[in-house]
């Protein structure tokens, strides 16, 4: 068990990165339900992210998505963030929404399309330079819908080539995170379907390439904490896109569907001593708040990560190791579950008060009048969404 | 084994219903890739459906989706169809795209929203009266995303009440098909997640309510042909929304992902003597052609259903029953597989020639110049999609 | 929220039925690892079940499995149980371990095998009469491994016929619970794969037939609490076979894999007022303790059910209903989660002390020396397992 | 499209390895149904394997499983095989059936158990030396059933250490294949759950370590042919354990559940030019014939692999590449499906006749009287099974 002071320090230092696009409208292929007060540009997204950070004290960075967050002056955007008390986190590339990308981007059979896609990746690194971001997050919608549609192997060769060019452009303090996803929007193959595929490409690329785990991108039954432990062991875990799911890539609030899974994941992080910022594991949210108000949903998500981390820090690791070593299955499980069942919320509320924060960030948000304010202020213009 | 003449007659009489919306643009939440020549209104959709029917001789009806296919004069639309050699099939209700439906339609906690949704269902029956359609197909996007969000049980009560009012409005020769779906766009519960739920509601409603099976709406591993056999036994199978999937509700072309499954489904239909139109089983397509050209994809889908049906008709049912009765597992399986592996395409080509059709409908389509014609003609206006 | 006194009374009255075979050896197809002290006959199994009941105060009945628990004198067995403070619960039939059942039992193509199987079911009712059991639990391993192997439909007819004969033999205060299972040991079809199939047969049989839910018998992604709510609404839920799983029918300790799911299930029970014994819902365990000591694992399982029930009783149902009715998704979810995250273990420990029990049943078991005693005493003879 | 002569040569050279244990009794945890004529020792297993090879001309090797196939004199066993026209294939290690292995073998927390397990692996290499086998196949049942039971990461360290010692003992012409499996008999984690884990260990070990794919060991929805293509690209695919499944590790006859998947897998092999023996891909069967007679089931399985390979050889690869390159989704899929739907059985029958074989190996087997002969001869003794 981590002692209370150490645990408190760990919690205080842990940051959860929120995503600019999560403050914007999102939905399913069936319908996007717009919400009042949704930001109309990257500046307003950052304003919302700053609110989450001010209330939780735990969301110091915000990820951007290009081109959704394209602006003329990235330096100004970075300064705006700074002024609001947050920093620009990962830059997320988008090579799936141009008409040219119907059959893929970096894996497309046409070299012209691959050129265009790679250029976009390079442009994202320019934006990293301009904003001070140190992380390029790559997710490719590439894949096929029908058996025979394209050569699985040839697509890998194309992917490797584009990744190489991108990797070589990275600056010294920059890195690339390669995300994998089992399916959607491709329905027969995706070109990076699992952690193994991402790992092999990252290994070939070099030390600045790492795997990022989106918790919603696995086949049913996949043991995600195993992947976490395994990648930590090999030094190739770069971070998480957190969210939760019951079925496919549901993109629900992290911890909402299976809080025990989140606890198990955070246990692997804690037990590998990978919680501290120096460990370089990015804890990012990548969610869609389709039917619930976005800002309080994101606050809730940050709190969920924090609570499960606190529970993981609570595990009596010495006793656990003893029970494991002696093969006492029930005792080891009991020690593990005891930490999960212990309510850490009062302790976290105390920590917040010590930091000068409201002990209940959700209630504080509702009291703040911010929701009413943005609903009133943000009229006119085009609400941001996945398309803009 | 059905003798050749009987099998030929069965194939000739079998109709596959195509869906108006499949001729329009569709996509995923990530992107809709528009295609050239896509219809701009219900009349043009029917024109495309008529092409599919003329080339295959096997797609005599076309389903409508309200409000996507709303017109001022349904009698005119029905006559347009007739003039093109096709008829209006099922009317599909849509209670998921209005902003009011964010938390449900017929299961919504607010009685005002339920009233609005039910009124839409009643309006669809008006359209059935006007178009001569005999089938109302109901799929509800209703459900919840988060545990605790609403009362599962109360939603069932609301559903039952709205279905009752709708059912009671049906004319003598009209029926209601209730579709089920495991998930999407709801990600914690859906209100009609499985065939059992649909069945119980249909049983309570009465003989004019039946279950419709969308082949893409099941949990991984579900044995769909078992459901087919079971519902046929109880007299509650109303029809199919055919498509295929590798993962979730992928909506790929039927038979593309697992042709053997389609064969097994058609075997249950054939062995229950439920292929003929009098049996009242509707064989409908409900697919999304996101990356492939729509009309030839739909022709291919009709052919896939036809081919697997022909294979099922080819099973030596007497020998199969003998092997089954004697417990000869390998022999029974061999007889079954032999029919699947036997190539029926030459025979179907012959049948087409006897009907005065081109033996190869896909090639005939490409030769026809229709694709080029609609791409040239259908300029201006708004291409139809899921939203219009 | 149920007030504390009412909640305490509900917890005190709730009984979890343990299974005689869970005290015996079990394993996978790869290996059964025997454990010291395992019972050698039904009397010793009941002794172990009585220990669980004495320590938890919550396991008053024990299920039998025939023929594994066959004895010459059932009256004596029932009296032995009574003497130990427990009663005989459900009688579980076994028609899957005789060589004749290779291709099925009540669904077998051979009427002779069906006769034999049905006779076994009738014999189980005789044993119910002799032991005072009021519940016959039916699970059939019937199914097929290969497409074409047998007629899905004909098997349903055979099943219905055998169930009818069995149902008609039930006494006035006896009932039949029909279990379903997606797969294993059959790998293509099972003859009762899902709740819908079980429901339809129970409905045809009559009011003394009900569905039993084994929590491990579903396809990935199935929302079990929906089924619970739905069956409660129709009056056809008879009970549970509790256990937990990550993959297939893993038969782990209930609550071990997904405690939040167990909480959601118990919420449906509580909110339908179906917790009390009069509601007739049997809360049974059906697990395999392959690698962990059996008695403490069963105690843990009883506690897990009790804890999740206590959490469910803790839900502020009034506030929840308000949030649901007003469509406040986040508030409703928050109220729900708050009950899950609140630690009920101290309160349950108090309740135990009020009942004169040790507040920590697991620790009390280890202190009792019972494990050492049975390991020393139960030498010689044949340890009980699934085969005997 | 491979020309006919080349295709015929490829088919003639392709060997499918059968497994000694598949001729023995097998079953599920619920029941093993014994069959008449089942071998009682490794010699009789080889006799049966030789029958399969004589009838198909395509099963030249037979895998052994240690200790199930332990004999005093391996040289004599190898000579017996040779005399029957077959050779010894892979040696399969078994570190899951000793009582010591309850909590694992090479990953066990106790170094004594790991020593014992590693010694068994080394012993298997001795047997390779004695029998001339060049392949050690490693599958570990290692894993945990409960969260917290053991350290996921520590188990990886132990695994790596034992694999290293084993690898270093391999002779110059010997290799090690590392199998992965998602679950069973472990139900929370397995220590080698997926191809990525196996790949990383093999990469660390060196060029004589490769991944083996058991087609039944994946999560639902996993695209196996992607893994095949990916591993071929990296040079780390060692072979297959073929079987088929609808749900979990069902171990049904390969091609029985999803023949189209098998075709897609063989297409990747063919298109990577990896079919020839020189490519070093082992095509092995690993199945359980629980309810069907074993020898004809194995013949059927060999034929299924052969038929899907012939179909894959039939793909018009030039036209396919053109369609793929030009982005013609429907055409590419059509070319692919055309090969699948074309009946190759008559051509394969011709090939057999050219080789002096019966065109219908199953019928030839039934005519041969072998089944009756072994049922009559193999009386007395102990039938072989998974335990012996």
TrEMBL record, chains A, B, C, D:
Annotated EC: 5.3.1.14
Biological process according to GO: L-lyxose metabolic process; rhamnose catabolic process
InterPro entries, alphabetized: L-rhamnose_isomerase (IPR050337), Rhamnose_iso-rel (IPR013457), Xyl_isomerase-like_sf (IPR036237), Xyl_isomerase-like_TIM-brl (IPR013022)
Sorted UniProt keywords: Isomerase, Manganese, Metal-binding
The UniProt record lists the keyword Manganese: yes
Top-level enzyme category: isomerase
Keyword Glycoprotein annotated: no
Xylose isomerase-like TIM barrel domain sequence ranges: 72-248
GO molecular function: L-rhamnose isomerase activity; metal ion binding
PANTHER family per UniProt: L-RHAMNOSE ISOMERASE
NCBIfam families: RhaI_grampos
Protein name: L-rhamnose isomerase
Originating species: Phytoactinopolyspora halotolerans
